[in-house]
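User: Here's a protein and a ligand (magnesium ion). What would the complex look like?
Assistant: Let me lay out the input and then the predicted complex.
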Amino acid sequence: MSKTLKINPLSPEPQKIKEAAETIRRGGTVAFPTETVYGLGADALNPEAIKKVFKAKGRPSDNPLIVHIARIDDLKQIARKPSGVSHALIKRFWPGPLTVVFKKKKVVPDTVTGGLDTVAIRMPDNKIAISLIKKAGVPLVAPSANLSGKPSPTQAKDVAADLSGKVDIIIDGGKTRIGIESTVIDMTTIPPTLLRPGGLPVEEIEKVTGPVQRPSTQHGNMPARSPGMKYRHYAPDAKMIIVEGDIRNMAEENVRKGKKVGIITFHRGHKIEGCLIKYAGSKPETVANRLFAILRSFDKEGVDIIISEPYNGGGLKLGISDRLKRAAGT
Ligand code: TXA
Ligand code: MG
């Protein structure tokens, strides 16, 4: 069993933050909330601690980790001096759901970056996360706190379901505000490259940087620069498909075959006999907030097949549709 520490997200108790920070300093692992999803934290400058993170998650070692800092000033310890436009970008959006890829400095262990000469960095917008990083006095790696390949956790009980017994401490700081991961942007290329759509719409980034290159988010087409994107992600145990148009036929056909069918819809009032229907909301903020918990709840209920309506569009919708497609493995 991992130790659970319930911490007040609005006013984190210093004693509990201290306990978690000491575990980090000793080379341990602590799951903590951010504004996007829960992360599995460890000392980013301690290769032994980082190995524990890969092991607990079952993560391939060539998939690099994001380094989390608590002040813009902490950047110069781990990254080469940012360009003027990169600096403008982080001034505008940090703390927040934006991860920026910079050229790295030597102190960042190869275990963090999978041997790349770049490092992905972000400053989370969450009081527990920021107090923990400050108290630990070191930057923290923090991949999403799920088993590799599973949907990211948006609440402490989802972390526990995947990682209990495999990490030292799980902080329970309530539900995460955004619900999908940060947007990852590579500022070492000209123009900048979008590596993962996420909580911050790329259109907002472009207001600061000018046009951003957006590779197709289809499987296999992501640039080699973002190793993590080649793996299957967010995958529920059930088979999942995204169906354009009327989902009723496909749902009923599967029910007739004796399958337990789960449905994700973005419109209220669907009723299909024999199916478990989850309304994810219609506004992107609501859908982002609920999506991963819905995927996890279908697994808990032993659903065989998940049928989802598509959810396409720009802004936050781009990140959501990316997660849906990856969950479906398409
Ligand atoms: O919102 C988030 O970013 C969450 C919270 C916990 O902060 N963290 C998160 O980490 O989503 P993770 O490890 O699940 O995803 C990190 C992504 C992967 O796709 C990885 O390949 C990419 O960032 N990445 C990390 N370092 C990179 C680098 N140097 N160059 C390119 N991509 C990198
Ligand atoms: Mg992840």
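Summary: The domain at 3-209 is CATH 3.90.870.10 (DHBP synthase).
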